[in-house]
């Protein structure tokens, strides 16, 4: 059984006990969150739309962290203009605990 969930403007395919990294959520480590369900597939039987109004995907927050640093370097040729900047995107790691159809 798997589900397609929506969080942070992105869609994720999840199964029970999988760990996913999503855009930062306002929750503490150890909290339980519920994700928006778009589709559920149970042994080939696909449920969408009104069939999943009461479906719930529960997840536990296992980490609040930042991703690996990326370097941004901008320059203009022959002008001696250089700009270096770094960025670390914050994320929330979730462990899927239950998919209830």
Structural descriptors:
66% strand, mainly beta, 101 residues, two-stranded antiparallel ribbon
Distance, first to last CA? 10 Å
Q: What sort of overall outline do the alpha carbons produce when their principal axes are compared?
A: elongated
What structural category characterises the helix and strand content? mainly beta
Please state roughly what percent of the residues sit in beta strands, choosing from under 5%, 5-15%, 15-25%, 25-35%, 35-45% or over 45%: over 45%
Mean pLDDT: 95
- Percent helix, as a range, is under 10%
* Total domains: 1
Count the beta strands: 9
The radius of gyration is 19 Å
Which blocks of ≥5 consecutive residues have pLDDT under 50? none
Strand count, sense and closure of the main sheet? 7 strands, antiparallel
Give the topology string: H per helix, E per strand. Answer: EEEEEEEEE
Number of helices: 0
Describe the secondary structure blueprint for this structure.
Elements: E1 2-7, E2 10-14, E3 19-23, E4 32-42, E5 45-48, E6 56-66, E7 70-76, E8 81-87, E9 90-100
Describe the structure.
With 101 residues, this protein is mainly beta. It has one domain. Helices cover 0% and strands 66% of the residues. It is built from no helices and 9 strands. It has strands spanning 2-7, 10-14, 19-23, 32-42, 45-48, 56-66, 70-76, 81-87, 90-100. The strands form 2 sheets. Strands 1, 2, 3, 4, 5, 6 and 9 form a 7-stranded antiparallel beta sheet that branches. A hairpin with a 2-residue loop joins β1 (2-7) and β2. It is elongated and about 60 Å long. The termini are close together. The model has no long low-confidence stretch (mean pLDDT 95).
């Amino acid at each position: 059984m798997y589900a397609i969930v929506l969080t942070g403007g992105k869609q994720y395919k999840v199964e029970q006990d999988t760990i996913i990294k999503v855009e930062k959520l306002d929750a503490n480590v150890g909290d339980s969150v519920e994700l928006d369900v778009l589709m559920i597939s149970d042994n080939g039987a696909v449920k969408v739309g009104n069939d999943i109004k009461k479906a719930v995907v529960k997840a536990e927050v296992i980490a609040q962290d930042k991703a690996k640093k990326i370097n941004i370097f901008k320059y203009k040729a022959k002008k001696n203009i250089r700009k270096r900047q770094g960025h670390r995107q914050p994320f929330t790691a979730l462990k899927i605990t239950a998919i209830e159809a």
